[in-house]
């Protein structure tokens, strides 16, 4: 049974049981501050389990793209070494929100596996929670009794809290779970050792395929449990593992989920992958297998993340994606001998394979390919730099063991992986101190953990029920009551309080727009709201203090100055999006944005730099729309299909409901939940201030509107006035500046010529100062030249003969510089290295540098250290 057919069979089965089939949520979570990525099937339904929202159906089924590479669920370092861990995987899930419970969930799981898919019942084992008296959670007798109807008791395993109690996090909904495991070993192996003994023992062929979680409790901040008001079912089945069971193989990578990708890697590299059925393979073949598994797994995670709008970067979720891709690149570089970008060529295979069910990978195929290719090229260059740095570390080593701190510096600063360093050092007959490396890594982790540590108390509910309403589209102030509060303490922000209101005019951060700020005002006090965010469908108002009387009635007041400036910038992004598609082409799609009171930032897909003329056209188009005084057209709660039919643009990577909000300004129509001006005339004017690259095929424009443009024009006017005044108010300012530039260029040429002549004159004077020390012609002195002049002088003296060791110091414009020249004969015979010399002497001028073995320079900031540096130079030839 092919993987596509297995997926369809699952969804059709649960549709027949009254479940609504919903699409996968994006793999990247944009509006959940507690998670970077969707790491489980239930992540998109958290608000329903918490009672903060109502699902469109009490029964839902789907297949969800999941990513587990950070935090509690971190499988990254296992991927490739075994046959069943993945970074990205599909989670088939069926959900009940206060509807059916254990009886139906377990019966349907068994029916689907044994009757629809016809898996061998003799290979299946089930587990139930054994109970935990310490937490007053009893043995799951109900699940045990249900399972006895389908399997013999010797196939029911009692599991502990680690294996059979599922929790969303340190706090929140949780409950006992019942798993189904399958034994895929041969008949002979099964006869020799019971599968029961291998359940939850990390055996590669005895694996969990289905987990039925029964959400009954809420975990509080103090660790205690309380009963949820409704019972829910949260189930998840590993799609890749199910395919393994159905296709009669013993490795996920031998299923048709991965074999097309593996075949492409084999074609590109000329190397062969051996299936899990082949035993007693060589160590070399095992390394090849691991590398290929790493690559075909990682390309799925990276490709889908990019398709969902997350570009590789140096921070946050983007850093995780970059890290996954770089892991794949280095495995190819080290074990498959791939020195050129090749992983991007797998994207077309992935699009053909999964595009029917996940259309985003097909529609974003070109962008994903371009971004991965650029990332590969960049990191391969980094690897080459790392190799050069490693050569220097080895050259400077005093023994055969490299310090762990040096290896960590390569890892931390240049992204050079530890295992690759170890491999290269081994080939050269060296090793490194791993415990020192681990100590440095642990220090970094501790610093990172301390910086991000957050302590969250339980909600104190003042008004029960799901009563919160957002009124911010129509009002900027209104009368409110506080419904719940909690305290949050973090190293980064200190103690803050999260406040939820019964109805709020404050817009929560989302869709690129920052959250509102403002105040809560009662008869006796004013509380500053410093930010507004959304979490699990609750709008959270952040404050540094709580009101003295939390039960009072307050007037919630949005800071309208900030709100107005932000709305101008937000509406301008819509107008610019339309302008970019008009000027550059309809291939342009929004890939990210930031809208705050000061400026707007807009990322979009485009294959080349936007020319100055094109930028002028975009500016002119946006300003024409502003001058046209286009009225805001706002459609609230419009069916999504109707909005799309009207021409609204939906953004990839966004999660939309059945009903949406559509914003219209003339020909600009977009699905958007943000705050906008009522008429484009309010924007006043639009000005682009920068354009540049973010990644391959992604450009970024930053722009300003309104008061910021007025300030910009005023600054430009003042700058022009200052220039004219400095130039003695010429009639033609531009002509005067060009004339000044021409004059400056002529003077620079004259100075360069004079310095060269000065260096030639110094040559004879310094030649007479050369001392002979141990057969070396030595000189270390300060000269009155600039850095370029010192270089010319060094080469002039170098032409005098062999065995020259020269250190020249300069202090042009109070910037100390050391220049070292060593005859090539000395470099070869006495193992002298100019780069090493300037690095050592550079310490005295509080600087550093490098270069080639025969010529190198070092800059610094301590002019007073020049004489000591020159004095110490003689130590290299003694």
Automatic annotation (TrEMBL):
- Its EC top class is ligase
The yes or no answer to whether the keyword Ubl conjugation is present is no
Primary location? cytoplasm
What single Pfam family name could you report for this chain, choosing any that match?
Answer: tRNA-synt_2c
Q: Is Transferase one of the keywords?
A: no
How, per the record, is the cofactor bound?
Answer: Binds 1 zinc ion per subunit.
Gene Ontology molecular function, alphabetical: ligase activity
Q: Which residues bind Zn(2+)?
A: 570, 574, 672, 676
- Cofactor(s) recorded in Swiss-Prot or TrEMBL: Zn(2+)
Cellular compartment(s): Cytoplasm
Q: What is its EC number?
A: 6.1.1.7
Q: Entry's SUPFAM superfamilies?
A: Class II aaRS and biotin synthetases, Putative anticodon-binding domain of alanyl-tRNA synthetase (AlaRS), ThrRS/AlaRS common domain, Translation proteins
Which residue range or ranges hold the Alanyl-transfer RNA synthetases family profile domain?
Answer: 1-715
Which family is it part of? Belongs to the class-II aminoacyl-tRNA synthetase family.
Protein name according to UniProt: Alanine--tRNA ligase
Name the species this protein comes from: Flavobacterium cheonhonense
The uppermost taxa in this organism's lineage are: Bacteria, Pseudomonadati, Bacteroidota, Flavobacteriia, Flavobacteriales
Q: What's the gene?
A: alaS
